[in-house]
TrEMBL record:
<dbReference type="GO" id="GO:0098609">
    <property type="term" value="P:cell-cell adhesion"/>
</dbReference>
<dbReference type="GO" id="GO:0005886">
    <property type="term" value="C:plasma membrane"/>
</dbReference>
<dbReference type="GO" id="GO:0005925">
    <property type="term" value="C:focal adhesion"/>
</dbReference>
<dbReference type="GO" id="GO:0030036">
    <property type="term" value="P:actin cytoskeleton organization"/>
</dbReference>
<protein>
    <recommendedName>
        <fullName>TLN2 protein</fullName>
    </recommendedName>
</protein>
<dbReference type="GO" id="GO:0005178">
    <property type="term" value="F:integrin binding"/>
</dbReference>
<dbReference type="GO" id="GO:0005737">
    <property type="term" value="C:cytoplasm"/>
</dbReference>
């Protein structure tokens, strides 16, 4: 937030300088020193706006990492469900005990999901997505 606020302040200051330079260069010939000042102020403005956009993009990317991980996990689980629902014969058989043991992974993933929801940290959401992906895949494999 601090980096974002500083970038916004830089843009505001550059805009103020650009307005001042524009006022000073109004009705002046192209070779007047105030026109060079206007060009310089415009370049600073473009640089600061570019920097602000990069900062916003970096903040946005950080804030959406967890969302992207969850979306990828959902897509993976959809693919696993397609395999689960197919008529293909499984490569190996699972015992009832093995199927019950697979529920532990689902329970752990659920607990992690609750903790990630409480912490609101991207790293926790990403770890939960990864654990959930494995737990659901293992459960579907054992059940099939």
């Amino acid at each position: 937030q601090v980096v974002l606020i500083n970038a916004i302040k830089d843009v505001a200051k550059a805009l103020s300088d650009l307005i001042g330079a524009t006022k000073g260069a109004a009705s002046k010939p192209a070779d007047d020193p105030s026109m060079y000042q206007l060009k310089g102020a415009a370049k600073v403005m473009v640089t600061n706006v570019t920097s602000l956009l990069k900062t916003v993009k970096a903040v946005e990317d950080e804030a959406t990492r967890g969302t992207r991980a969850l979306e990828a996990t959902i897509e993976y689980i959809k693919q696993e469900l397609t395999v689960f629902q197919s008529k293909d014969i499984p490569e190996k058989n699972s015992s009832p005990e093995e199927s019950i043991r697979m529920t532990k992974g689902i329970t752990m993933a659920t607990a992690k999901a609750v903790a990630a929801g409480n912490s609101c940290r991207q790293e926790d959401v990403i770890a939960t997505a990864s654990l959930s992906r494995k737990a659901v895949a293992d459960m579907l494999t054992a059940c099939k």
